[in-house]
Amino acid sequence: MSLAHSIWDEVLAQVQSHRLSAERPAEEVADDCRDLASAIARAREAEALELRGETLSDDDRAWLDTELEALLGSGPLERYLRRDDVENVWLFGPRRGALGLAGGRQEPITDPLFADDAEMIGFIAHLAVTHGQTGRRFDHSAPLLDLRLRTGERLFAAMDVCGAPYLTVRCHRHRAVSLAELAEAGSLSVQAAQFLAAAVRPPAPANVLICGALGSGKTTLLRALLGEIGPSEIVCTLEQTFELFLDDSHPWVFAAETREPNSDGEGEIGMEELARRSLRSGADRVIVGELRGPEAATFLSACGTGSDGSMATIHASSPRQALARLVRYCLASGLAGAQSALIGEAAEVVHLVIHMGTDPRTGHRGIRQISEVLGAPADRFEVRDIFARSGRAGPLELLGRPRNPDLAERIAEGGLDMSDWPEGS
Length: 425
Fold this sequence. Notes:
Layout (H helix, E strand, L loop, with lengths): L2 H19 L4 H27 L5 H15 L5 H4 L4 E7 L4 E5 L4 E4 L7 H14 L13 E5 L5 E5 L7 E5 L8 H6 L5 H11 L7 E5 L5 H9 L8 E5 L13 E5 L13 H8 L6 E7 L3 H10 L6 E5 L3 H14 L6 H11 L2 E7 L6 E11 L6 E8 L6 E3 L6 H9 L12
Parallel strand pairs: 7-11, 7-12, 8-9, 8-10, 10-11
Antiparallel strand pairs: 1-2, 1-6, 2-3, 4-5, 5-6, 12-13, 13-14, 14-15
């Protein structure tokens, strides 16, 4: 075995042991590991020089540095995760991949990142053990991996159940964004931005549901809306994985995320339990990053029991479908009551539904509709567009001021004068 490889074996063992036992911030632990690796290399090179007259070449040192940075970072993915314009990384086996860039663009990965399937699987298994919030497994007995890296990226990987190993990493580049910035980028009009800002501001904020397809910009809009909340409000955010990062900018946040079971299958905390217990947090608002199941009943309860200004996102292709899916998720909880009662409650406590969409020709993401909820006669949701686009590429246009007197009053208290707005049809 060469001197460089024998040094690396010792560095690998000691660095892994130190990282798994350390309870300090990841950046500090990484610096400690570099110091540890440097000390080991100096000691072993001095010993080899004295015994055999052997030293490390420049290539050996470069190789050791590369291996160490791969261990401490995300290996061959690190170069992409450091780019500000990369939002997603997809690998379809060891030699084929693509980058999802800001603005909906894609870029192929031309250089093979791994020699073969086994090397790719070994790399993912290493990330599972060392880079997650809890140690996880990725092997034949656990072929699916869902993991949040300590640096914030979300990772999903699969093996055995697919032809070649699969890996996707989702990055969160823009933690802070405002409605004004979204308006400048064309995601919504200035007038619509002013309307939404007034709708979610205290003292009487509206309850808002944001819908759209995967990658349509729901979470980005939710972050922008959260920028309008009052500085003294206590906010509870519930997420499958942290994406809102409200605690970066707001002083009073109880931010909670679900927890996957550890390698022994223990310690799981699902969204339903997290949401149910959150009602005891005493928060002024409850924010759910994404409604996917029975936790919708808790969100609906929060909207109707004093947590005005609560918000959530949901996968749906229209405002009416979003409300119907909200009810369906509530029914899945088994504790929510009759469907007709749920429809009536949802129509009463959800004030606005915002539909996000992506133009498939340009990849541009933006608001398609801002709709008010007027009721549910005959168990069918009645919604009316306040803003909408006439076509995929058309501007977001004002159609008329709200008809719901409760919503109109809330927006007026939020500081927006709509007296000169048209009545609308």
